[in-house]
Amino acid sequence: MKYSKIAKAALCIVVCVAVLASDSTVSNAVRSISEIEAEQDALQDEIDALDADLYSLVSQIAEINAEIDSTAAEIEDTQAALADATAAREAQYEAMKLRIKYMYETPQESLFEMLVQSGSITQFLNRVDYAKSVEKYDRAKLDQFIATQAEIEELAAALEEEKASLESAKKELKTQESALEVMVTEKRGEMDDLDAELKEAKEIAAREAALRAAREAAARAAAGGTSGAVKTSGNYNVNGDLNPGYTTGISGSSVVSYANQFVGNRYVWGGTSLTDGCDCSGFVQGVLANFGITYGSRMTSGSFRSVGQEVSYNYMQPGDIVCYPGHVAFYAGGGLIVEAQSTATGITNYRPVTCHSIITIRRVL
Predict the structure, then answer these.
(1) How many CB atoms lie within 10 A of CB 244?
(2) Predicted confidence (pLDDT) at residue 12 exceeds the cutoff of 60
(3) Which of 78, 161, 212, 352 would bridge 156 by S-S if both were Cys, CB 3.0 to 4.6 A apart?
(4) What pLDDT score was predicted for residue 299?
């Protein structure tokens, strides 16, 4: 197409204004990316602090569990001691009952009889003291066993109370732990949202950059043609007149529209699934298969260089296959391609068709 000097100047002005507008949009996208990344940093600091609190709680719970185990062991020992003390008290009590029974059932000597039977006053006093000492000893031993039992029971009660207190503290810490885990999960969900937002912002920035490149190429074309604007590999004729007709009745726009449904999905080396993951050739082959265009074997980027008919760059239309060194994509129109780009980006539709050296463009529709 030929332009007058005035038309060229006007077109350059329009393109420059468009490029400046694109620069502003890209700048806004960059600022947005910076804001998102700053928010991610702040959010990560919150997550790190919550993780630290969670670790501290888990440590405290572990310590309390150890104390509970130790207290339970003490309670077990105390219960054994209490059983021994109770048995001793009962044995002493039974012995006392036997002696009391013996004393009451056996006829008691009067003091006069004891005095008569005693060889001396000293022997008499000794017999009286002995009877009193037996009764005193039995009472003292019983009191001792009762006191010991009471002491052990008090200790057991205190240990049970301590264990209950530890269990209560543990329950409270577990409640705090659950609350923190919920908060961490929520924060990680927010981080996932920010990751998705950041990815979208980067894609917007990349698309705007691609549009800027396309507009700059249009500006160069308005200033003096497209020569040098397209990188090629081999003997591909950029400015040729190859424009074969369509033979399938399938529109290129419908192919591009279908391909765009999978933008954002994963890139998987050797993959053929448009939903679960594919590489560049698997992507092109899978999209074409949806329209009944199939091949007998697994295609590679090199295999697509010989399919269909060659198209000159000047006549490229949406749905045409663009072959690069080690890569293949669909031309999407507007100077862009839709492709399974890389493992880092997945399936995208924002790069310019001139992102790599073009080996050939093929029309299979």
Answers:
(1) 14
(2) no
(3) 78
(4) 94
Residue keyed to tokens 């920010």: 194
Angle between helices 252-260 and 280-290 (to 10 degrees): 120
Using CB atoms within 10 A of its CB, is residue 319 exposed (0-12), middle (13-18) or buried (19+)?
A: buried
Distance CA 74, CA 304 (A): 80
The CA distance from 365 to 358, in Å, is 20
Give the DSSP H/E element, type plus range, for residue 340: strand 336-342
Token pair of 43, please?
């959010």
Distance CA 128, CA 83 (A): 37
Please state at what angle helix 121-224 crosses helix 5-105, rounded to 10 degrees: 170
Q: Are 91 and 77 in contact (CB under 8 A)?
A: no
Give, rounded to a whole angstrom, the gap between the first and last alpha carbons of the chain: 27
Predicted confidence at residue 26, as pLDDT, reads: 44
Token readout for 197 is 């937002």
